[in-house]
Every structure is written in C-alpha cells, then in structure tokens.
Amino acid sequence: MKLNKVLSFGLFVLMLFFSCKDEKKEHSVTALPYFNSADFTPEWDTPKHKIPPFSFVNQNGEIVTNSTFENKIYIADFFFTSCPGICPKLTKNMVDIQKTYINDRDIKLLSHTVMPWRDSVPLLKKYAIKNHVNDNKWHLVTGEKEKLYDIARTGYFADEDFVKTQDESNFIHTENFILVDKKGYIRGVYNGTLGIDVERLKRHIEILKQEI
C-alpha cells in the first residue's frame, strides 16, 4: 500500500513538472505560424491561404463582409441558437473574450450559424440580446446554407468531419475558435469549450497585436 502511494505521488510530481514546463514553453512563444490547410500543419513565414470573400447578414440586418474585418484581428466560430450541447459553452467563452477586448477596436468576433433555415435575423437578435452581445464588437451572421457551409469547410477549415468524410450533406458541429490576423490569414485554432484554450487564444492575440 505504501509503495502504491509513493508511486502515485511520484507520478503526480512528474505530471506537474511537465505541465509547468509546457506552460513555460507556451508563455515563451513570440510569433505565430500560418495555417494553410485543413490538417492545421503550422507553417512559418509562408502565408498562402486567406479567408475567401464572403457576404452574410448580422443580427441587425446589416451586410457583413471581409471589409468589415479589414485591418482587424478576429475570432470566428460556428454555432446555432437552439444548440443544447457545446454552443452555450462556445457563446459563454466568446462573451468572455468580448469582455476582455471590449475597448480594443482592433479585435472583433464573428459567429456563423450552421442552421440558417431556422436562425433568422430576428432570432439572432434575440440571442444577441440574451447573451449581451455588443453589436460593434461581435457579429452573429446568417445567410445561404451552401455559402456558410463552404466557408466553414474551405475557408476556416472548421469542419473536422468533412476533412475525413468529404460528405457535404453532413451537419456542421464544431468547437473550434479560429484566430484570423489583420490580413485575413489563419494564425491559430483552439477548442472554444475549454477555458485553458481560451486563455491561450488571448495570449496569441497579444502576439498578433505586436505584428506590423
């Protein structure tokens, strides 16, 4: 019994050591890679893939395009208002990001519905009010299903299942937050349901803010 306790304690110490080591390494990051493909292989100094042109409608009935985010850093995700699973966590963490950068004009948020046949502009507005969305900071958008799904899959590489199956009929359900820089390049992907990943995202935003 004593031996088991000693082994367990030793394992705990080792895990703590490597955890602290990884955290220290993460804090030492001073530049971010580019992500040019759906496998999210980091590439340094080789920006190739830009978010393609898009045009959607936000919670206020306003047209939102790439120009809306020109010279802005933004975080994109995909959700639907009636989602009972991961979406409330995604929204909660987006609210947290909004709060952190509420006075920073260089940071924007963009949430795309994956159920546009249900999520009308009035329903998005109702959801925005319920979740204290700042209209100047955070756009909840709807539009044609084909265009929303296409940009999720080929623009943001957000649909992991599509990468595996290539089945366009599948419903998109992803927990990814995608970090896009001021020039429209993908610079990071994060699990939007995990607080620790949201904090990592914030650290990476600060790195991007230093880029010229």
UniProtKB/TrEMBL annotation:
Q: What's the domain of life for this entry?
A: Bacteria
Location of the Thioredoxin domain:
45-210
Q: What is this protein called?
A: SCO family protein
For whether the record's keyword set contains Disulfide bond, the answer is: yes
- CDD domains referenced in this protein's UniProt entry, alphabetically: SCO
Q: Which InterPro entries does the record cross-reference, listed alphabetically?
A: SCO1/SenC (IPR003782), Thioredoxin-like_sf (IPR036249), Thioredoxin_domain (IPR013766)
User: Between which residues do disulfide bridges form?
Assistant: C83-C87
**Does the record bear Ribosomal protein in its keywords?**
no
Q: Which protein family is named in the record?
A: Belongs to the SCO1/2 family.
From which source organism is this entry? Answer: Algibacter marinivivus
- Output the Gene Ontology terms for molecular function: metal ion binding
Keyword terms of this UniProt record: Copper, Disulfide bond, Metal-binding
